[in-house]
Predict the 3D structure of the following.
Amino acid sequence: MSLITFSDRLSKFLMIAAATWAFGLSLLVMGNIIGRSVFDSPIYGTAEIVAASIVIIVYLQAGYAIRSRSMLKADFLVIRLPDKVQRILLAIGYLLGAAFFLMIITGGWAESVASYVDGEFEGEGALRVPSWPARWTVLIGSALAMINYLVMAYIDVFRPNEFDSD
């Protein structure tokens, strides 16, 4: 299995996992609202779970957003340039995107390890949520995003499909 196929399958799987998680969160929030308003019995810890989950959902979907070309892109000037210049600018953009996510990984590595080792928690009161799943999801999601930017650079700059023979 090639790196492109692997990143595509992993990106899709994580996107589905994030969508499922978001659906579960919506049920949790709805249950909390109904419990609070109808039964005067809220689901304690809903705010803490939702706050931690938003970060997880975003980073689980980042790789898919990049690979499916859904990331915000202002190319209104670039499309008017010659093909060779477009390829160079795409390569620069993809490499900058990969470098950005590499900086997130290198900047967050020590804190992620420490949050797991130290058993760091967030939230006070009804529910304390462990911090390490969100921190590690940021690292894993950033790694996949970085790989997908490099895959996109390879595909868009070198255009390997143009050279395939049928």
About this structure: The mean pLDDT is 88. The two ends are 20 Å apart (CA to CA). Residues 3-163 form one domain. The first strand starts at residue 121 and ends at 122.
